[in-house]
């Protein structure tokens, strides 16, 4: 009788110890994965154009084809694993980095539709046209292109690492303090601190800079002050390089944090 009771209680203990599902995070992951799959589908539709323009560079075509196939497979796998109850934030962050390029292109097309095609007021069209011009200039600059390609590549590699990691096993999860010596505890804290700085420089700072640039353009349309025009011109020249620099420095901090964080088990 005691054995039977113990056997019945085992599933309850396992269920209690397993992490709970986060419906909001799952919804975000499903949306990002769907964007990734749709973007890969659009890129597949553009393959004939790639073949026509790059037929003398078979290596580049191979890399592009493998990258598109990788993005499509990743999106489908993440959709299939959307009910995983671990690494929610890591999956959201990795997917967000991976879909940077297609999302930026969608924003450009949406702005073009608003000021050129859509049934909107003339004031909204003028504001959108000013923002579109700045966004297009940023989107076509070499630093911005390198930034988006690097961001998508790193996000995709990070996403593959998460996909192949068994559920419940996370290298991001700090080890309990009682399992570490004093030196290992200091090492782990330093690694986590470097990671936090890296995430801030790679994601938050570029996002804040781009938002500030958009705000200055919108304000310039409303006020039309000479000082704002000078600020906009200075930001247009500096912003792409500032975003790239922040991203690269943040990546260095992330790698440095990874080195410090690896504690021997």
Keywords:
265 residues; 82% helix; 2 domains; mainly alpha
Question: Would you kindly provide a written description of the structure presented here, covering whatever features stand out?
Answer:
This protein is mostly helical and 265 residues long. The protein has two domains: 23-166; 180-264. It contains ten helices and no strands. The longest helix has 42 residues, at 182-223. The model is unreliable at 1-16 (pLDDT under 50).
Rg: 23 Å
Largest sheet: none
Overall mean pLDDT stands at 76
Q: Helical region count?
A: 10
Give the helices and strands as they follow along the chain: HHHHHHHHHH
Quote the beta fraction.
under 5%
Helix content bin: over 70%
End-to-end separation: 40 Å
Total strand segments: 0
Principal-axis shape: globular
Find the structural class using helix and strand composition: mainly alpha
What count of structural domains? 2
Which regions are unreliable across 5 or more consecutive residues at pLDDT < 50? 1-16
SSE topology:
Elements lengths: L1 H16 L5 H23 L1 H7 L4 H23 L7 H11 L1 H17 L5 H19 L1 H23 L17 H42 L2 H36 L4
Helix pairs in contact: 2-4, 2-5, 4-8, 5-8, 6-7, 7-9, 8-10, 9-10
Summarize the structure.
With 265 residues, the protein is mainly alpha-helical. It has helices spanning 2-17, 23-45, 47-53, 58-80, 88-98, 100-116, 122-140, 142-164, 182-223, 226-261.
